[in-house]
Structures are given as C-alpha cells and as structure tokens.
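Late entry, evening session. Most of the bench is empty. Finally got around to the prediction I had been postponing all week. Sequence below, unchanged from the version circulated by S.P.
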Amino acid sequence: MADVAVLTDSCASIPEYLMEHLHIRTVAYYIHRGQEVLRDLVTIQRDEFLRWLTTARYLPTTASPGPGDYFDAFKQLASEGKKEIISLQMSAKISGGFQAATMAQNMMQDEFPDVRIEVLDTQNAALCQGWMVIEAARGALAGLSLDRLAGTVKKMIPMSRMIQTADTLKYLYMGGRIGKAQELLGSVLNIKPLIGLEDGVIVPLGRVRSRGQAYQQMADMVAEAVGKGKAKIAYVHAGAQREVERLRDLVETKVDVVESLIGELSPALAVHTGPGMAGLCYYVVED
C-alpha cells in the first residue's frame, strides 16, 4: 500500500480497472437534471446518461464538488492512517474544484494538523488530468515522496495535450465552457471542429469536413508534436468506442506509443461534449 494517497475528481474519467489497481480515490461532480441532483459515476452511469442526453430537450447543469465534499474525502483518508495526500484537480479556469479542494485543505489544517495535503491545479481536464493522476498513483505505489509526486505532475502539466472532435459544439456552448473556441460556432453544416486545451482554457485547433479528415489531422498533429520521441496516449470518447478505435489505429501508424488506453468521459463531462465526441489526451515521454 502506498504511503501517499492520491485523490482526484470523477471528471478525470480514468477507467475503473486502473482506479482499483492504483488505489485512486475520487470525489464526484454534481449533475443537476431538472429537480434531480445526480452524482457523477455514483448515482448516474455513462450509458444511461448518454441514452437520455440524445433525447433531452434541455441541457443539465454541472457543478464541482464543494469544500465539504473534499473535506470528507480528506478526512476519510486520514482516518485510514494516511499522513500525506496529493489531490489533483481539473483546470481552475473551467471548474471550481481546485478552489474547493484548497478550501478543504485549509479546513484540514485545523482538525488534522499532522496530515500534509498538496492540492494541484492540473490546468487540464479528462484523461490529460487522468494521466497525471495515473502517474502520481504509480509513483505513490513505488514509494516516492509527496514532493517527488508533485514534481512529476508539475512537469507533466505543460507537456500534456488534448485534441478532440465532435459533430457539434452546441453542448459546449450551452454549458458555458466554449472558451476561445467560440469562433468555430459559425462553421457551416458538416464541418467537424477540432478543439483542445491551452493554459487551462478551451481553444480552437482547426476545422475539417469529415470525421476521417479530423482523425487524420489529429494524428498528424500528434506526430508533429512527438517527432522522433515517444508518447503515452489515452483515447477518450463519449459513447463512441468504435470511433476512437479508428483514431487509435491511425495515430499508432505515425507515432511511437509506449502506452495507450481507452477511456470514456464521465457524465459530468459528457454534458459539455455531447454524445459522439472522440479525441485523445497525450504527453511526450522523456527519455
């Protein structure tokens, strides 16, 4: 068992088998669907939510966990004997999770002064955030110190990149998360937008006329960024398993991938992408 506990939120969208194997703890986001208050991946699961979303006449809203949610998670880990915790949150520019976890960290200092907590803004989302959590958890299981784990995450922040495409940006727009990709909203019908995250904000990366062209451009972008180096890639989707398999097959003819996985967005993120999103989160592995 690792000496340092690793905590993140449900939007990291890490596959369940890795969560269990690496002893990663999560705090669930909230989804407000009319009068219903759902907990991400606790009281609502991916398949059920996406089936509903395809027929929905209104878009649910989402909310980050509050300070009390993170405080309860920190207290639970402390009660299990953990003296050090690293907590990795989604970009503070698109979510309040980092601020809430920081408040909970301060609350813990009064009640559990002997527990050291490091709260980090990953400046990323989905499986870009997830990669940092995965590598931190692996380091924790290997016995690395809290400082070493924090250092690893901080090095990964500027190296981690997300590229995704979907048939529409309406979900992102309606959810208020469109960021600098607003300019793509005026695209004509049948244009597939490419978006990413830079400095924690959603940005436009281009537009093409078909899914196939989108995947080709995504593969070319990753190949150019990685060059002759190596990468770890998480292929991420919202109800589009076959699409990310197409993307994976194309990317891995161009890039030296030392580790890959496929993950599906949690419902709280799928609210903003809509069904059918396919993309990838990658970082260049240093020798």
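Two things to note before I forget:
The chain has a mean pLDDT of 91.
The chain has two domains: 4-157, 159-285.
Will write this up properly tomorrow.
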